[in-house]
């Protein structure tokens, strides 16, 4: 991914992205509901303006947008994602996340800087969590060399970058790098922010579906280092 002299990511040229974006903006704009938009923006703590399209309806519209289009390459995925993020309304960001999730297998490790840009721009849990589990997690699973990047992300001052590192193995199940998972939880165990404490509990709870004994043993050893919220979330489905 090319970075401009101003430190911003350059949007690749893509005829496919041009088609998708033209369809997307036309289709979504026609379905906008200003009253719903006000309520959605308030629910999401004013992180961004909304068009007011409910999720089920938006997904139907999204299928219409991509109907008949070819599978994208990495340049097209990058262009769609960055161009969606340049639009203010949150539904366009959701479309980009869904598009990347669907085509994550087309992405290489070179996409990681783009994923970081999306995580750190207009940041909130509604986009960050899906990017972490389904996009960043997919990239790391496909290229284990990116674990080194996750080692840097878990120590990042940006809480959304650190949250992404915590959650990137959320769907890895038996492929989870358990040592890293536990080390990341310990690395952020003293973090004061709710979103980090919640993420610690969430990633441990998810891994407990694969190996509950490992999670219980870990928390027995280290319980005193974690906030009650993290412990409660981690043990929610497996007991003390």
What is the N-to-C succession of helices and strands? HHHHHHHHHHHHH
Give the N-to-C terminal Cα separation.
46 Å
By oligomeric state, this entry counts as single chain
Low-confidence parts: none
- Mean pLDDT rating: 96
Strand content of the residues, in percent? under 5%
Query: Treating each run of at least 4 consecutive H or I residues as one helix, how many helices?
Result: 13
Structural class: mainly alpha
Estimate the global geometry from the Cα principal axes. globular
User: What's the main sheet like?
Assistant: none
Helix content: 55-70%
Tell me how many strands there are.
0
Cα Rg: 19 Å
Describe this structure in words.
This protein has 240 residues and is mainly alpha-helical. Helices cover 62% and strands 0% of the residues. The protein is built from 13 helices and no strands. It has helices at 15-30, 34-43, 55-66, 74-86, 90-102, 112-120, 125-142, 147-153, 159-167, 178-187, 194-208, 212-222, 228-234. α6 runs antiparallel to α7 (125-142) and α11 runs parallel beside α13. It is globular and about 55 Å long.
